[in-house]
């Protein structure tokens, strides 16, 4: 079942359950999918990779908005963003914890033959592709930088 079909089915369930918060989040995901399908050069069926990029971007936006609202003392808006984030995360693959992320990054560093901080770009290119949807880009970048600075991995 494609993401679009799954979202449509879940929208129906949320409507029947009268779950307004979930319904709003699902509709925003559906909107992203429809925009991606209809944009210039887009195709009717999105690839799994494109779907994951859309969901990851949406999750990142919700996370950043929630942080901003928290700083401004707007708990009401922060809660809305966090609820939508929780719904979006249901459709994303399980996120790697810091320990698992470091293990995977060490494997990638050894595979590409990186020896120091000057190889950051080479490692990030491979890591970003392989870990897409499983870890935040900022977390990957931070961990790669630390690992390459400490060559005793």
Automatic annotation (TrEMBL):
Pfam families: YqeY. This is GatB/YqeY domain-containing protein. It comes from Pontibacter locisalis.
